[in-house]
Design goal:
4-stranded mixed sheet; single chain; alpha+beta; 448 residues; Butyryl-CoA Dehydrogenase, subunit A, domain 3; binds flavin-adenine dinucleotide; Butyryl-CoA Dehydrogenase, subunit A, domain 2; 3 domains; 13 helices; Butyryl-Coa Dehydrogenase, subunit A, domain 1; globular
């Protein structure tokens, strides 16, 4: 049975989240984006402490409501909602910057929770997972290297030395690396093994000697000077050098050589959650476009009455609806199957690819429709636009996902064993003629 409605009790939770986002979290985002009083004076340390306390009070409300870490199963203290319900919540939170933090489901901590839950030892779960779940600790995931995004080229290595591992190499775009309590580092442990067995993951406390933050790299739109402030709290995508970083043998996360395979748990979950949040971003952009179309006049007419504007709105609506349904379908498949099967990986790759395109197209059209206002920094569209390209890069680029998707699709087909394809009409017609000649003959024989 396919149903597009949720139970009334869960609808109440969705409505509660919607209200909290609209009344508290979106205004918090807006306030934090300037960080000043009405008179233009910047918030001082006490002011920021007040905001931090306020954030904590919102987190407490979320915990009281049983919605903290809503992506987690009951074994990890979450409500175990399943992916479809997660979609409905994530698309609301996707509109906000602080929403995931307030609900305890912020990247990269969420993916790292999954990693430790699936691969960690009991001690690792106690030391790292529990404080991560409660929000007391924060983590980062250190895989991409400055010279290579793909694992084939990774150089950062870990070698065993007695009871320790020694890590050497460089990583960058380690989101929230600065200000994190620990890092999950992917390092080559045996370069001679086949690709999927070369690397292992390690949990490294961020304050371990030898962990050097070279710069705290930010994305486009942030002034470059922030990259050089390496103790500015969380945020940014750290460029980290691991210089003879010694960690105990039991810092290995999962089995030796299982790093690349293990990382897929994290990345697959993360990709669908990004797609869910992209639905929220695009919905907001389209809402803004519709309001503007009904409010703004050009050449004596409302924008809403201009046919090319109508065409753009219709395109955005259709793209968004199709994308949302595909995300929900993928979530439904995961709930049904319970693991990342080939069929599911195919759908996840598809929505990861379309997330980038839909984001780009809908935000671009919304900006365009707003004219100069759209190009200004006085609407949420600017920040959305600056983030749009990252959807096609992070957690695997669009091209790589397209290549994987095609490979997964093609596994369901066989090559033709003939010069002409199986659907070559002359061949099919000949077969059909054989079939119907027999039908006609049988009929005539029975009539005779
Ligand atoms: C906002 C953001 C946050 C991130 N957070 C993290 C994080 O927390 N931890 C982490 O480890 N990494 C993180 N990353 C890094 C991200 O995972 C990489 O950027 C991504 O894997 C691509 O690697 P790359 O940047 O080295 O690009 P490259 O691999 O150098 O790719 C460059 C271009 O080549 C194309 N290309 C590559 N391979 C192929 C192919 N086979 N066929 C066709 N074209 C190809 C790509 O599509 C791309 O257009 C983050 C990135 C962003 C933007």
């Amino acid at each position: 049975m396919i149903d597009f409605e949720v139970e009334p009790e869960f609808q109440e939770q969705i409505d509660w989240v919607e209200k909290l986002v609209t009344e508290e979290i979106e205004p918090l985002d807006q306030f934090m984006s300037v960080g000043t009083h009405k008179n233009g004076k910047a918030l001082d340390a006490d002011g920021w402490n007040a905001i931090r306390a306020y954030i904590k009070s919102l987190q407490d409300k979320v915990k009281d409501r049983g919605m903290w870490g809503f992506h987690l199963g009951p074994d990890l203290g979450g409500p175990g909602l399943g992916q479809v319900k997660l979609c409905l919540l994530n698309e609301i939170l996707g509109r906000t910057r602080m929403g995931p933090t307030i609900f305890g489901c912020q990247a990269p901590d969420t993916g790292n929770m999954e990693l430790i839950a699936h691969n960690g030892s009991e001690e690792q779960k106690k030391k790292y997972l529990e404080p991560l779940l409660s929000g007391e600790k924060h983590s980062a995931y250190s895989m991409t290297e400055p010279h290579a995004g793909g694992p084939e080229e990774f150089k950062c290595s870990a070698r065993r030395d007695g009871d320790e591992w020694v890590i050497n190499g460089e990583k960058w775009f380690t989101s929230n690396g600065v200000g994190s309590d620990f890092l999950i580092v992917m390092a080559i442990t045996d370069p001679d093994k086949p690709m999927l067995e070369k690397a292992s993951m390690f949990i490294v406390d961020t304050d371990t000697p030898g962990v050097e933050v070279v710069r705290n790299v930010h994305t486009i739109g942030t002034p470059l000077r922030h990259n050089y402030n390496t103790d500015s709290g969380r945020g940014g995508h750290a460029y980290i050098r691991y210089n003879d970083v010694r960690i105990p043998a039991d810092a290995l996360l999962g089995d030796e050589g299982a790093g690349f395979v293990g990382s897929q748990t994290r990345l697959a979950g993360g990709r669908i959650h990004h797609a869910m949040r992209a639905v929220g971003v695009c919905t907001r952009a389209l809402d803004m476009a519709c309001e503007r179309a009904l409010s703004r006049r050009a050449r004596g007419q409302l924008l809403a009455d201009l046919q090319m504007v109508q065409a753009d709105l219709a395109e955005s609506y259709i793209q968004l609806k199709q994308f949302r349904l595909h995300v929900l379908y993928t979530a439904w498949l995961i709930d049904k199957t319970g693991s990342y099967t080939r069929e599911i990986r195919k759908e996840i790759a598809s929505i990861k690819i379309s997330a980038a395109k839909v984001n780009h197209d809908i935000i671009y059209r919304a900006i365009h429709l707003h004219g100069a206002l759209g190009m200004s920094n006085e609407t949420p569209l600017g920040a959305m636009w600056l983030s749009a390209p990252q959807m096609g890069i992070m957690d695997g680029t669009t091209e790589v996902h397209k290549a994987n998707l095609a490979k997964l699709m093609l596994r369901e087909y066989e090559p033709s064993d003939d010069l002409f394809p199986t659907y070559h009409l002359p061949k099919l017609i000949e077969k059909a003629q054989d079939k119907f000649e027999k039908v006609v003959d049988d009929y005539l024989n029975s009539a005779a």
